[in-house]
Amino acid sequence: MKNYKLEEVLEKVADSFLGSLTGNNLEVVSHFDTDGITSAAIMTRALKRLDKKFSLRIVKSLNKEIIESLDKKKVVLFMDLASGSLKEIKKSGIKKVFIIDHHEIDSENIPENVEIINPELTKKEKISSAGLTYLFCKKIDERNKDSAKLAILGMVGDTLEKEIDRLNNSILDDGNILRKRGLLIYPSTRPLNRVLEFSSNPFIPGVTGNMEGVIDLLRESGIAPEKGKYKNLIDLTEEEMKNLVTSIVLKTPGKKDKDLIGDLFLVNFFGKLEDAREISAKINACSREGKPEIALGFCLENFNSKKKAESIHTKYRQELVLGIKRVNEQKKVVGKGYVIINTKDKVKDTMIGTISSILANSKTYENGTAIIGMSYDGQNKIKVSGRNVGKTGRNLREMLSNVMESFEGEVGGHHSAAGCMIGLEDEEEFIEKVKNQFELEVIKIANLSSN
Ligand code: C5P
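# cytidine-5'-monophosphate complex -> structure
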């Protein structure tokens, strides 16, 4: 496929997908994060437009049991997962499989009955699964352009917004998405005093959680309330934005202007201009709280789902704060280039990925450090989430795949963010094997430099 362009693959696979659909013969399986849910929402809308019946399953991760439980006679479409499960798919005997995904893939072992859209097989374009699903559905019917905003939510959910190129730009244009440079504190569509008070990324000493500190900071930045109300971030003048960034930089050691500034995306959602990061956080919260159907309804702009999504989000934020506190208090295994945080049953398995990401984005560990978070899933398994600090460091998918050769369990992901599930009985041995992997690397580097 290396010789094909993504555009050609999309066209070819869309034709084949349409040709394979008859009556009620489609099962869709998608991932439970924001990228997976928005992919499912885009596909749901497109299939409804085609008047095709299908069943949809949202899963935390793909495993042998799920693959085996699928109807072998049906066409199965996997979204935002399955690139790491080709062997199991081959063994399962499912007749026809389509995959739309952007995770790393073993391109040598693609079974004949599997058609894949994955930029890892073309030019490694940086695009979310929702972005791919969107482009795919647009090939099926130009009217699916009305899902462009969902593709942007998927991109923001997978923090791919820094990688915007021609492909993603075309989606932004299709969705009439407003893109603004500014302070990366969100939501940018709510009064500044409230947003600063709750800001955890960045955490602003003396301001986060401190209303008086917030008012002082705004005064220092020359921003005063108008008729008793502070402006929203997106409504600041250039001058006010610049002053605010300077004031925050002065209060957050280690942060520079460029760390705090980036692209904000404003999306018309439920008839209002909303910050894409806030919508994405709400989708993510519903799914992680075990309510993917509410996340999906919310994406499809169902009012009832919106109300429920908002109350779940509030609860989720409280749990996240508690989880971060517990991780901070937790005893850690610290070695050269890695930190293993085994939270056991102290942190929910659905939170450990997010908390590992927050930790990787904070200034707690050096660039290049791998953070390996672990949490019990309450059913004899342990969820493992690996995140690199910065862009350097080991390929975590490769590292976890090496470790998992010794255990039963699924593994997948990318260079800087990967995950796996292990059995509870393998806890200690798994930790030893991870340590060995990093120590092996130190020996390799030492050998290289002495040669
Ligand atoms: O689960 P976690 O958030 O730690 O996963 C990190 C990345 O690895 C995500 O992009 C996730 O989709 C991917 N992953 C995967 N297969 C797994 C576990 C994680 O593709 N079995």
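# post-check
The chain has three domains: 6-175, 180-325, 331-450.
Residues 303-329 form the longest helix (27 residues).
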